[in-house]
Amino acid sequence: MYYLGLARGYRALDLARWLLTATAAAVVAAFLLRTLGRALHGTGGDLERLLWCLPPLAAVAWFAAVTARAVPAQHPERITGLTAAGAGPTRIRLLVAGEIALACALGSAFTLLLFLILRNDIAGPALAPDIGMGVPLPAVAPVALLAVLPLVAGVSAACAIRLPERLPGRPAEPAVRRYGALRLLLPAPVLLAGLGLELYGLRPDATDAERTLALPGGLPATSPALLIGWGLTALALALWTGPLLALAGRLLALRSPAPLRLLAGRGLTAQARRLGAPLAVLTTVVALMLVAWRHWARTGTDVPALTLVEGTLVLACALAALAARLHELRADRRPALDALDRLGTPPGLLTGTAALRALAAGTVLLLTGGLTVLLCPLL
Amino acid sequence: MSAAPPDNDVLWARGIVKSHHGTPALRGVSLGVREGEMLAVTGPRGSGKSTLLGCLSAQLPVDEGEVWFHSAPVHTLGRAGREKLRRERFGYVGPEPHLVPELTARENVALPLLLAGAGHRAAHRAAGEWLERLDVADCAKLRPADLQQDRRQRIAVARALAAEPPVVFADDPTAPLHRDAREQVLRILASAARSHGLTLVLATHDPALARFADRTVHLVDGRIAPEPAAAVAAAGN
What we know:
Chain B: Keywords: ATP-binding, Nucleotide-binding. The complex is a heterodimer of chains A (about 375) and B (about 240). Chain A is an all-alpha fold and about 375 residues long. Chain A has 14 helices and no strands. The chains are: A mainly alpha (about 375), B alpha/beta (about 240). At the A-B interface, helix 12 and helix 13 of A face helix 2 and helix 3 of B.
């Protein structure tokens, strides 16, 4: 009943978020059911196919976590209302997570329905192995596979949401938290280890026999050293995205800045912590896609349809997570923007500030993303 | 078209009507504020003090009525015109400090000066002086989240005064302060207004603070009560 009431009050943005969650869940469920169908059919390579379902599952979980985290800032009235109705932090957490899990459950149920209808002798022979046609379906298998999605999304949402103890309707003074020394230095050894592994994998006497890892999506085989090396390099660059954004903000506000540079720079530094993660995820995803694209373009391979669907899903989730975080930050900044408006700050200055901040952030992302692509020795 | 307001009034309002989404807040308020005076607007919660200050300080457009600043109409100004007026002529302190969280205390105080086009060095020097006057010079390099609420409010007062605007609006500026700090901050506000010849419009529900003012206007349910002096005297006793 609560979710029905919520859904009646949905604005366009909430509806879009809900629909994206359900659609993403439906697509991941399709991947999982295809794995099940293939397993029933007995074509082999089941584990590999199941592992291939992990990136989209992780993308859905990431999106669920970021949207759940944004709820208290975006809908303070909902949290206030629930608190007034006697709901404690645990129950609010469960209710927010339940909303996302429900969207996932409905999306997966839709796919399951389609799967069952197709199995009913409707699908042609081309699709038969994918849905395990002709093999009896153990009832527990699809249910178990589909329960995974709401569970994963719900748990990641419940863990991500933050409910500090304070009176409802009284936001705390937003603190500007800095990066600790450990957080700044940690990526350096990771990057060095990654580069070392890559160099080892690329050493002159390395043979093709070392390339034991078969990559999906028409990509060439690679060696574990190269793959792990590049993974570590990408991780280190992603970890440095936030600190680099903070640094860019500091540089912007250097040397007696005018209000435009001052507000843009300090704002970027203050938001670097919370913007860093979704931007790093998006940059890594885009870098990965560029690498794959470069290979496909060079070898003239047709892009496999399933890889394309999966890539689109992951990219959509990363973009939507960034949009949700930006929306959350904007909602959090409302009091500060009101204060600036009260001082008579012209809107043009605020627009310019946002543009300058986006430009600086874009430069940082171009740097980290570009390095991630350049340091990829896979292809 | 009505006649222009009297020359000696820096602010002059006639028959202001303002409602918030259908809830009436002001139902026809007329008053004049003379140059250099300190006017207190008193009244209980919900009597329309904040809305009146909002209308006078060009933050809210009026539904009906007129507001004049130095013989220039404010009620006919568009958004950009009102922003320019706020930036160059008015200072404002609210019941909450509402500082920009990512700026240090000194930068917060220097911001109105920078927005008005002052140089970086001059703005920061003036900001430092005002922080010193309000007893918070030691917080110059700290950010609002690292400070106690009463210090933030002092910084907000410094921000309103830093550009030395002709008119300063203070809407219950002592709300977040403890009793001993209230008088001190208000005394600083009043003495700064007098020494710099600023006009101060102060909204408060505390009659003890209203006695700092030269004149008091009492608001009840969005209208000016007929005998403000009597009302204040009664509340004071």
